[in-house]
Specification:
Layout: H1 9-22, H2 28-37, H3 42-52, H4 59-68, H5 76-85, H6 94-103, H7 106-118, H8 125-140, H9 148-163
Length: about 160
Amino acid sequence: MKDLMSKDEKKVKSALKRANDSGTIAWIEPLLEAFSLRKDDALKEEMRGLLSSVKLSAAEGVFLETLKNHERKDIHADVLGFMWSAGFVPSESVDVIVRCATSGDYRSAIEGLTLIEQCQLVEDEQTLLEAILTLRNALDCKEKSEVHALYKPMLEALIYLERNQ
């Protein structure tokens, strides 16, 4: 796993192959770390592909922990995309999704909207209300006006869920 961080591209390539072949949850966090530190290149794209195709249900928890970590903010949009690509629907973490979507850039907002639109039920009313409040506050923020068009359908989807619980 340490080879994911290597300067030697052959070692990184070999580590990526091992990660792909083993398919265990132990590789997810090191892959995220390597992904966040790597400059854009073919190996980073290969990491993106692996993280986007994860089919381990436990990976959702690792992705959510990454989204909760403010020090990893630089990859939040990517992680939101990985979650969607992997087919995760984090209904009970809509507050985390919304926080990342509204505190990030345009891409974060798009990825967040895509995930929120997949949610069909949020059992924890407090989580749902926190997400709604975060979106309402974001819509009041004039500095983020370029992404308000993405926040509005997110808010509408969450209000719909709240009314139909």
